[in-house]
Structures are given as structure tokens and as C-alpha cells.
Amino acid sequence: MKFIESETLELKKSTSEIKEAVISIVSILNKNQHGELFFGIKNNGVVIGQNVAEKTIRDVSKSIADNIEPKIYPHISHIKTDRKSCIKVRFKGNDIPYFAYGRAYIRVADEDRQLSAKELEKLILRKNKDKLRWDTDLCKEAKFTDISAKKVKSFLKGSGLKYDTVNNALEKLRLMSDGKPLNTAVILFAKKPHAFFPNARLRCAVFGTIDTSFTIDMQDFEGDIFYLIEKAEGYILKNIHIGMKLEGLRRVDVPEIDKAAFREAIINAFCHRDYREFDSVNIAVFKDRVEIRSPGLLYGGLTIETIRTKMVSERRNELIAEMLHRVHFIEKWGRGIKLILSKEPDTKFSEVGTKFITTFIRKSYYESKKVVEGVEKGGERSEKRLVDGLAEKGVEKGVEKGVEKLSANENLIYTLIKNNPYISKIEMMSHGKLTKKTVEYNLEKLKKKGVLKRVGPDKGGYWEVVKK
Questions:
Q1: Which domains, ranges and CATH numbers included, belong to the chain?
Q2: Among 4-8, 118-122, 284-288, the least confident range
Q3: 77-87 burial, b for 16+ CB within 10 Å, e for fewer?
Q4: Is 21:37 a contact under the CB 8 Å cutoff?
Q5: How far is CA 10 from each of CA 21, 47, 75, 152, 453, rounded to the nearest angstrom?
Q6: Average pLDDT value over all residues in the chain
Q7: Distance CA 106, CA 116 (A)
Q8: pTM listed for this prediction
Q9: What is the rounded distance in angstroms from the CA atom of residue 337 to the CA atom of residue 347?
């Protein structure tokens, strides 16, 4: 028999190398969880044999027992190879990391290398990865009567599967264990998921500035992941500007942030969030941006740079991801970041505290900011120049004909609206340095003069310049 050292086989010329042997056993266990070691064979595979007595076997066993933690119980035997006495040690163990003389080692090819602190941390995380997974834990408080048959039926229909009973459906989907539903089953299909998980929640807010100093609206939603995803999408659409274009004879809405991009970010937030964190997924709509905030930093050693350039993913909640993939909410191979960046190249990803944040810029803010840039820089004098120069620049061509002359404030509001039909009253107040009463008064005057008309509701609608 020819012996060649490998990741699972170590050769020692004699028991005089017992310390090195113990280190090799630990290295192999930490890498492969099983292996063999022989005394009486050189590392080049040449069998030289050694004296083997009953005490020799006991000494080997004692050295292993005294110097390896956690304890292992190897099979140690006296064998004959090439008619020479050798000792064979066969060992296995899954309780990694193992330590020899207080230090951790790992097998690299046929060599033993001491683990660094970072490598040791990764090894511990790898060992506990499945144990730490929230999505595969039992929801001990939940019963099958807490699961909505209607939700399960809808899901199975979307994934092309047949429904018979809730129990059988969860069994097929691998969403139960020991007769109890898993956390994934509850967060997706429970009648009231928030009764078991208070963080099964979505928090949304609209702010009137570029920070949180002025709150316009706040809403909280409770429910299953599918419900919360749709609510998050709807909230963003309701509170950003919607343009339009014609495709043939059809009018097509065009949000200022691509819908597919922010929907993907919303799905990622619910799919990859840390459900052990009490916080909820948050949507924050500012004047200049929309932020989607998810509890939990990037998982599996990923960085902002790697997700942007390498397009790789590590899933914290594999089972939830699998369920969302079944109904085509996510791609199997983690193409979400690529999709977002292809639709919205200026998207920013960041980690702040314990949250992962996806930020989309609002194009309307930057467009309207350019229009009044001169006003904001030069104060009243610049504002007067802007108003006086409107006719020269052709801004009011086709509007003033047949319409009485507009005042300075009317001109200013008209200009802001012409350049951004989706501008809000708060934005007019900010850019034009006007009070709310002044904005509302002059809007009414412009509508009465037939210069402007409002299309759609206050939220989600837009202004139309009437040309006569």
C-alpha cells in the first residue's frame, strides 16, 4: 500500500512526534471533520515501523485526550504494514473549532497552519450558520390554525403547485418540522404574523426637507412579507412624482425613480433583513431622495464594493429567498443589485449602524433646483432678473397672449411649475421663499386666469400649463 500525505492523511515516523501529530489531528478536523494518522511511516510514504507496546497505545490516547479540545474519541490500533509494526489513528468530529495545546490550526494541502483571529471567527460562524438561521427555526407559539389557508392557496397557485391541506402544503414546501410551522411559514402565511413577530412591520414617512426636521406624513403597516412589499411599493409611488409618456395611443406613467429598481430594493430589504433585530424595514421619502432601510448589515463577509462590482450575494434567509423565488419575486442567482444599477445607476448603498440602506435620488428635486439656482444665489435682485427676463427667454410665449399680465409671485410659481409639473406646494415655498398662504393664493389666481390647471389628486397628480 502506498501512503501519500493529503488534507485527510498525516504520516509520522514515530510517536516521538506526538505533539506534531496532535496538531495535525486538529488541523484535519477543522478542515474536513475526519481523517487518519499513522506512526511508523515517514512523510515521504516510506514505512519504517516502530516499537508498539500496550503502553505506547495508551500514551498516544492520553496525549490526544489531554491536549485536544473539545474532546474527541479516536480509534487507535496496532497494525502491520510491509510486515512492520505501525500505529493507526482514525478520528472524526463535527464540533469545530478544535484546539491543540490551546491553539487552533487548519489543514492546507498536507501542511498544518495556525488560524488567525479572523479565520477563527469565520470558522465559528460557519459552524453555527445553520443554528443561527432565523428562517429555519420553529415558531413554537404558532399552530396550524394560525396559518391562512387563503394565503397558502394563493402562493401555491403562483408557484404552479396544487393545494389540498395547509399541513400538506407546508410539508411539501419544507416549512414545518416536528409538526410545527417554521418562522418562514408564519412570516409569509400567518393570519396575523405580527402577533408572533412584532417586527413584521413596515414604517413609512415623508419629510418636507432633505432631513427629518419636518414630517409631512407617517404610516405603519403590519402583516406578512408579501403584503408589506406591496404596501412599501405603493407608498413610494404615492409620494414621488409620476410623469407620463405615450406608447402608441396609450398613456404610460413614468415615475421619477424606476419602479422595477425600487421594487427590487424593497424585496431585498425584506428577504435579507435580520429578523432577530427588533426594528422594522423603513421607507423614508425626502425632498431629494428615497431611502429603503433594512435591519442587519451585509451578510457572509460581503462589502459594498463586492456587491456593486462582483454582483454576488449571500443570503441570510435562504428559506425565505427560496419561497420568494418560487413566485418569481427574486432571481435565483442574486441579480438584484445588477437590476437596480441598470435602471438607476446613481443608486447608493451604505451601512449605517446596524442598517443597510439603499438610496435613490429624486430627479424632480435636482431639476427644480437648477431652475431656481440663480434665485437662491442672488436673493431678491436675482429673483427680479429671473421674473423680468421670462418673456425674453420665451418662457411665457403662448401663455401671455390673451391673458392679463402676471405678478412677480405668479411669474415665479408659473416658472417653477413649467419646469417641474410635479412640484409640491412645500417645494414651491422652499424654492421661491414664499409662505404657504402666498403659494395657495397665487395658484388660485393662476387657475382662474386659465394659465394652470390641476390634473389628478393633490398627491400623485401634476400641474398642467394651459397654452392659449
A1: 9-127 (3.30.950.30), 144-195 (no CATH), 201-361 (3.30.565.60), 365-465 (1.10.10.10)
A2: 118-122
A3: eeeeeeeebbb
A4: yes
A5: 8, 13, 15, 54, 84
A6: 86
A7: 10
A8: 0.60
A9: 10
